[in-house]
Amino acid sequence: MTMINESLAGDFILVGFSDHPQLEKILFAVVLISYLLTLVGNTAIILISYLDPMLHTPMYYFLTHLSFVDLCFTTSIAPQLLWNLRGPYKTISPTGCAIQLYVSLALGSTECVLLAVMAFDRYVAVCRPLHYATGMHSRLCQSLVGMAWLSGVGNTLIQGTITLRLPRCGNRRIYHFICEVPAMVKLACVNIHANEVQLFMASLVLLLLPLTLILISYGCIAQAVMRIRSAQAWRKALGTCGSHLLVVTLFYGTITAVYIQPNSSYAHSQGKFITLLYTIVTPTLNPLIYTLRNKDVKGALRRLVQKDRAQQSEKL
């Protein structure tokens, strides 16, 4: 087992994957590559959506915010994780831990609601196409995005503050690779039943409620497409909703396994690997899914490249 330095009295110790020293080297390479791809991919989507007028639509407005959330979410976790995987010191300062807890929880909660907002946008586009332009106006889009951000910030202020104020009686070993609410609650030296109930209720509201809205939206979309009985309509619906549905499956399929599972199994290794999926891998795959499966984004990228080449030719 990799030696964990415990000489820094005030710091938390992120045990992480230190019980698998050989695996840490592989994880370092995987996390580093994933993080770089996340930076490049999500930044590219934000720039393309901003620069191409054809993408100035509600769908890409929401996608831009999703890319920004993923970019910040991974950045709040990956650098510290890389540092701990690389060296023998697995520590994080109390301030750093609090910042990571607040920021990652706020962004993760925001993404939960934002994915539900995007599903509603797809519902209006497919089931109410004639009213899409007037229904999904800019003020409504801004309000929906604002609601997602406020939900995330509100949740983290409540859950994060309650978690950090729990007495820990000197317990500093976090059996995880990040400062996350379920792992931090386990450090408490008092009865945490009320906190576990609160965490479960918050998970129901911010995970299962948005997921239910997403499933209802896609159920309505499926019914609308089936009534048309057209292969072309099926292809259009799949092209319009397929990317978002795949992203929803990846994100919710992993995060619900951590926050809805029995608390006694949280410290197991599988919990760490599942968390690694939705914090590092999923934000890496999102840009690839939206670019490889989306004709609009690929078309916008081609137009920007052609425009750049034309400008260079004029200079010559």
Automatic annotation (TrEMBL):
Residues 41-290 form the G-protein coupled receptors family 1 profile domain. It is a multi-pass membrane protein. The chain crosses the membrane at residues 26-48, 60-79, 99-120, 200-225, 237-261, 273-292. It is found in: Cell membrane. Pfam families: 7tm_4. Signal peptide: none annotated. Keywords: Cell membrane, G-protein coupled receptor, Membrane, Olfaction, Receptor, Sensory transduction, Transducer, Transmembrane, Transmembrane helix. Its main location: membrane. It comes from the Eukaryota. PANTHER family: OLFACTORY RECEPTOR (PTHR26453). Belongs to the G-protein coupled receptor 1 family. Putative odorant or sperm cell receptor. This is Olfactory receptor. The gene is OR2G7B.
